[in-house]
Amino acid sequence: MKKLNEIIALNIANLRKAKGLTQQELAERFDYSDKTVSKWELGQAIPSLEVLKQLGDYFGVTVDYFLHEDSEIDKSKFRIKSIPQKQNEILITALSAVSVCLLCTVVFVYSIFNTELFPTPYWQSFIWMIPFASFTSLLFVFRWFRSNKLLRIILMSTFIWGLLASIYIHAFTFPYINPSANIWYIFFIGIPLEVMIILINQMRK
Hints:
Blueprint: H1 4-18, H2 23-29, H3 34-42, H4 49-59, H5 63-66, H6 83-113, H7 125-144, H8 149-171, H9 190-203
């Protein structure tokens, strides 16, 4: 395992190079000499906490970013996102759910006009909309909002219980299913799955 000064040195150098700056250019932005920046990147000196905060604000990362030697993907949670970027990510996540809702609506409308394929309007598409919309939103949440445990739990729970409810309701549309059958037992599956969701999210950082 690398020493702290080596980790900080590597992170400063990587951030500087990613921004296309020379050591001299970075030093001038903070009123330091290029020799000081060189010492930071060689691990011969460690910037103070105040300087790390200044560097972090400039590069758009938190101080914790400099202290970790993980990959860029693992350290993405330490990046400070701009307001427009956050808004775009929220908008894209919302649009993914809206797209599913639109698709389910199209299926329902199509079922009204295609009586050969659908003897009755396929209103069940709106039931399936819940787990599918939750699942697509969850994909983006894991990408951009993985640190939000509550949001992850809500979407994962909605997906599981929505899926079970969809299967339960949809089962009665099949002619070979006895309406008096105790299909509601399927909801017992959700109990251990819900416990697993909570435990997994508690263990995740």
